TrEMBL record:
Gene3D superfamilies: Domain of unknown function (DUF427)
Name this protein carries in UniProt: DUF427 domain-containing protein
Annotated InterPro entries: DUF427 (IPR007361), DUF427_sf (IPR038694)
Residue ranges of domain DUF427 in the record: 16-107
Superkingdom field: Bacteria
Organism (species): Fulvimarina pelagi HTCC2506
Amino acid sequence: METHDRITIEKAEGPVNITFNGAVLASTKDALILREKGYDPVYYFPKDHVAMAFLKESETKTSCPHKGDARYWNISAEGQAAMDAVWAYDEPHAGVKEIAGRVAFDRSKVTIDDGA
């Protein structure tokens, strides 16, 4: 587990699945949970465990002083869409390097099943 002044990252226990409008977008037993003070926990999935065919890269880019620069994707599945619902930090800051090569989903736009 990596510790940062305001962020911790740990391996999720058990499988985690992401669905959107009935379509399975991601399923893995290798998710990481990033906990940042002031925010809900976020699961990060290995990119090769994500059905990238449902995602289309958007124009949106953001920068976080703690994690680095992020790029975003829109979801399109089963006739529905969600804008900027997925993001990744391709070259995250050193304190959160474990999230490189992983993507995260906006929990308000998808369904997360982590067995809880």
